[in-house]
Amino acid sequence: MTSTQIRYARYVALGDSQTEGLGDGDDGIGLCGWADRLAEHLAHHNPGLRYANLAVRGRLAGQVHTEQLGPALALRPDLATVVAGVNDLMRPRFDADEVAGHLEAVFAALTAQGARVATVTFPDAARLTPLARPLTPRVLALNARIREAAGRHGVAVAETAGHAVVTDPRLWSPDRLHASPLGHARIAAAVAHALGLPGGDDSWTHPLPAPDSSAPAGWRAGVAELRWAAAFLGPWLGRRLRGRSSGDGRTAKRPGLLPVAGPSGRGEADASPL
Q: In this structure, which long-range contacts are made by residues 221-230, counting pairs with CB atoms below 8 Å and at least 24 apart in sequence?
């Protein structure tokens, strides 16, 4: 049986804020996100699909391992996505081997239970903001280890790291940490392509149409960087120094397997390209 003939009944998403859906909706109207969009695509081809999302913002890879793996296994998914590690990348004592070890433990347990598993590699944040340049070696190291761990367990990898379009600012929220609705749509399409799902192809790698205006240059670009640092980087660092996380006190938005309702009137610019 080829991957395009596989039928899925239970999809479970594990991870942090990106999988929870930050940047695609908000806590008032509700978050969508790439995993929700992937579930909608799956449900179109798999009537009766049920979907759970265990992701919680701010979680480190070790927390995804210790807090989400057990509940995920109890749901007995036949498809799971595991995306974590970005929060680890920004910690002072980042250890690529340790982070990848947690991810591999999750890969191993889910695949041993019979689930098809997918993950992603991460783009170089320095291509979004020069202030993130010190993170580049960490991103490259983690991506290499994710590929190695995925290869050992037959995990599908959506290689978002290697395509220029993933650093188009229009795919990112103003905080440059979370995808925009269009970015979430591209991530969903990338994972669908990696899994070989019906309707999945490489169109997610294609560049967006040329923007109406050019990016700010010279001193204006520097001012934009300072504003970003004050609005987003500063508060993030403040939470770290206080030992706080954006996910403190939060639980998974969709802890149990539920039917997928389907798209809810998103505009064309926000719609999944699948």
A: 225/129, 225/130, 225/131, 228/129, 228/131, 228/174, 228/175, 228/176, 229/131
The C-alpha atoms of residue 188 and residue 37 are separated, in whole angstroms, by 6
For residue 77, which of 110, 118, 112 has the smallest C-alpha distance?
Answer: 110
For 91-104, how does the pLDDT look when each residue is reduced to its tens digit (9 = 90+)?
Answer: 889 999 999 999 99
**Residue 119 forms beta bridges with which residues?**
157
Beta bridge partners of 3: none
| Residue type (1 letter), 166 | V
| φ, ψ for residue 25, nearest 5 deg | 95, -165
Residues 49, 246 contacting (CB under 8 angstroms): no
Task: Render pLDDT for 58-91 as a digit per residue (tens, 0 to 9).
Answer: 999 999 999 999 999 999 999 999 999 999 988 8
Three-state DSSP at 93 gives: coil
**Cβ-proximal residues to 262 (8 Å cutoff; 6+ apart), any chain:** 40, 43, 44
